[in-house]
Amino acid sequence: MNHTVLIGLGVLIAILTVVAALGLLPSLRIVPDNTHFDFTRFRRISFPISAALSIVAITLFFTHGLNLGIDFKGGTLLEVRAKSGAADIAAMRTTLDGLRLGEVQLQQFGGPENVLIRVAEQPGGDTAQQAAVQKVRTALGDSIEYRRVEVLGPRVAGELLAYGMLGLMLAIVAILIYLWFRFEWQFALGAMIANVHDIVLTIGFMSISQVDFDLTSIAALLTILGYSLNDTVVIYDRIREMLRRYKKMPMPQLLNESINSTLSRSIITHVTVTLALLALLLFGGHAIHSFTAVMMFGVVLVGTYTSIFIAAPILIYLGVGEHREDAPDTATPAKKNKA
Amino acid sequence: MLYFTRWRALGIILTALIVCLCAVPNFFPEAQVKTWPAWAQRRLVLGLDLQGGSYLLLEVDSNYVKKERLDQVRDDVRRTLRDAKIGFTGGVTVRNDAAEVRITKETDVQPALAKLRELSQPLGGLMGSSGQRDLEVTDAGGGVIRLSIPQAAMLDRMRKTIEQSIQIVERRVNELGTVEPVIQRQGNDRILVQVPGLQDPTRLKELLGKTAKMEFRMVDTSVPPDQAQQGRLPPESDLLMSASPPPTPYVVKKQVLVAGGDLTDAQASFDQRTGEPVVSFKFNTSGARKFSQATQENVGLPFAIVLDNKVISAPVIREPITGGQGQISGNFTVQSANDLAILLRAGALPAPLTVVEERTVGPGLGQDSIEKGELAAYVGSILVIIFMLVTYRLFGVFANIAVAINVAMIFGLLSLLNATLTLPGIAGIVLTVGIAVDSNVLIYERIREELRGGRNAISAIDAGFKRALATILDSNITTFIAAAVLFYIGTGPVRGFAVTLGIGIITTVFTAFTLTRLIVAGWVRWKRPQSVPI
């Protein structure tokens, strides 16, 4: 089925390409030209909303916590599939409970033949985890296919968590330094606030949805960071350009103009990223499911909102453009001031 | 912005073409690529999550290494002081990272210090000139001399232990007959073992989990084992248990007649009389001499074959064994005889290894992941391509050509680097398609704006490129920083994601700055457009 669909889509692309090259397609404007939305006025609503959401997210983090995956918690995870027919979860549960390995979770996913087994971390360090997985394998026997087995000792799990967090901080600091170098410090600070806002909300999402928080989640968070900044930088670039060009324009208006003139790009880009993520979410399989779900939330929902409603308006409070007439052009980097 | 010299245009096209061509070996079967010249053999490596296999992270027990070193120091101290006829009370104690000895006579302390300092050797290797030594001998006051191991010496010892362990691990893994295992040092005390295609690492873990310290020692017949168990163990003997059930105690002398290091070969075979699986072995010359001498002196007495402090068997020496070879029988199955032979051939690990992380992916799941990843990548790309065509029409065609070349270049670069493709890595490529399109969107939207600002077609295109490219650079560098950090902290699949994301950003910037411009410039030269259909 999949191949016919793919071939069909390929043919569609070929036809569209020819039609487009011949100039026969009507022009499609997703965002009309010359929009004039007053985005900055929304800051009186968006800032309190963001603050409230951040508080909710932080509260959730402390009350619900994150569903730490095996990478960070340690323990054993087995993904098994019955060699024929549906897996008998009840029988497997009885067998595994008989092993007295503490908390054992069994969960069906993606079809009746697949079962995910999680065995809590065993007391007694690394060798105890190994002994546990050996017991499970022996008890379940050869009637099932072992599709994935992961065993992590408590120390490695702790190290991975520390490393992941360290990486996240490191990325934020590195990007901050870069922005400081390329823009003025207010921009760097604004981007950083937007950044932390993104991460806090996404962590709130992970807490609510209780998706596994593991190494791939850190990867998702870092990607969200990259994308959101990508967006923010595009708008900041425009703001900087406008600041040089219009020395007397009031800041709220200047910010609005900047956001509006990049709006079409923001939306088109987000449609394309959403399309790519949608494909991963629908067809990428469960191994990267939580990864793409988190990314969808972070990039598509939070990232765009942040760039437009937080990162740009916050520059007003950070005092960008207040002293333009006093200090024309001297504070700007030497590059790119031909406008 | 729209003018390219002929040579520059040629250079850009050639660069893109060469990078794309690097991806070619991936489309041929591996066996065929193997026959090509070495420079053409670079290709993508599938990660363990896609091809299936086992990943083990082993840790060398640093406490064991330290304790073993201190035990050795203790023996050295005893011997040195005895040889020098210096009296000490209470024996040599090993506690808290140091060995301590109390010298009986006050006047002996200085000579003892001088003698014991001779035990301390300068650290070898490239750092030998640093003046560091492998033992610190200090006067702790009250006649107590303290011998501790400095940090640098400990690190040096760990480094050597890891190096030796890696060699042994390599030999043991290779005995399993697996394809292209990867064995690497990780950090100060860990070894990473990746075995593609291995579905059940149980046997591998068993092989790696044994130190395989083999010793031939005499059984101490002066005390029956049950009395020794009640605490009447002679100081020169150990109480060891049997390797096979039921656990039987043996009293075995501490002195080692011959050690496993003197073995040159070991093979699993069958006993000619009983038909049981046995392991036959050969000693080297010095081992053969020691063994023959020991057996001559002890005819009629039992000796113990000890592996990792467990007694495999304790046969009685019927006659001197002078040929330098023999066989071990001890309730083996064919498999366990084979495993013991492997362990003996590969040699003993200098310190025990513990598995601290294990990840195994079965071939079924790997294949599923490849199929799903491919499907998602196709569908994602197709959706994006259609969207771009509908949105930008002719310029959408340009963008799609640029993105297609971009993706081909990603595969080219990944192959050139022999990079590992993982499932998150495929996700990274799909996301790169999103970013790559974004650079085109930035340029096109800027052109639209410049057109609205009243510029003519060519000047709008020129200004659009000029202004958008700076933004593209800025925005991509931030994402690249995130990818670089991810590469640094990540392992396995996550690192694969970082690699594709990072390479994707590089190719995206390259395409935006050169290819997209070249395509549009070509179109402008050809058409001399009055308006831009964008």
From TrEMBL, chain A:
GO cellular component terms, semicolon-separated: plasma membrane
Top-level lineage group: Bacteria
One Gene Ontology term from the biological process aspect of the record: intracellular protein transmembrane transport
InterPro entries reported for this sequence: SecD/SecF_arch_bac, SecD/SecF_bac, SecD/SecF_CS, SecD_SecF_C, SecD_SecF_C_bact, SecF_bac
GO molecular function terms listed in the Swiss-Prot or TrEMBL record: protein-transporting ATPase activity
Pfam families: Sec_GG (PF07549), SecD_SecF_C (PF02355)
Keyword tags: Cell membrane, Membrane, Protein transport, Translocation, Transmembrane, Transmembrane helix, Transport
Subcellular location: Cell membrane
Limits of the Protein export membrane protein SecD/SecF C-terminal domain: 134-319
Subunit structure, interactors included: Forms a complex with SecD. Part of the essential Sec protein translocation apparatus which comprises SecA, SecYEG and auxiliary proteins SecDF-YajC and YidC.
Identification of the protein by name: Protein-export membrane protein SecF
Species of the source: Bradyrhizobium niftali
UniProtKB/TrEMBL annotation, chain B:
Keyword entries, A-Z: Cell inner membrane, Cell membrane, Membrane, Protein transport, Translocation, Transmembrane, Transmembrane helix, Transport
Topology term for the membrane: Multi-pass membrane protein
Stretches assigned to the SecDF P1 head subdomain domain: 244-351
Any one GO BP annotation for this protein: intracellular protein transmembrane transport
Biological role stated in the UniProt entry: Part of the Sec protein translocase complex. Interacts with the SecYEG preprotein conducting channel. SecDF uses the proton motive force (PMF) to complete protein translocation after the ATP-dependent function of SecA.
Native source species: Bradyrhizobium niftali
GO molecular-function terms, A-Z: protein-transporting ATPase activity
Ranges that cross the membrane: 375-392, 468-490, 496-520
Subunit details: Forms a complex with SecF. Part of the essential Sec protein translocation apparatus which comprises SecA, SecYEG and auxiliary proteins SecDF-YajC and YidC.
Protein export membrane protein SecD/SecF C-terminal domain residues: 355-519
Compartments reported by the entry: Cell membrane
Annotated Protein translocase subunit SecDF P1 domain residues: 162-220
Gene3D superfamilies recorded: 3.30.1360.200, 3.30.70.3400, Multidrug efflux transporter AcrB transmembrane domain
Signal peptide: none
InterPro entries associated with the record: Acrflvin-R, SecD, SecD/SecF_arch_bac, SecD/SecF_CS, SecD_1st, SecD_SecF_C, SecD_SecF_C_bact, SecDF_P1_head
Name of the protein in question: Protein translocase subunit SecD
Family: Belongs to the SecD/SecF family. SecD subfamily.
Pfam families per the UniProt record, alphabetical: Sec_GG (PF07549), SecD_1st (PF21760), SecD_SecF_C (PF02355), SecDF_P1_head (PF22599)
Domain of life: Bacteria
Keyword Cell inner membrane: yes
Cellular component annotations (GO), alphabetically ordered: plasma membrane
SUPFAM superfamilies with a match to the protein in the record: Multidrug efflux transporter AcrB transmembrane domain (SSF82866)
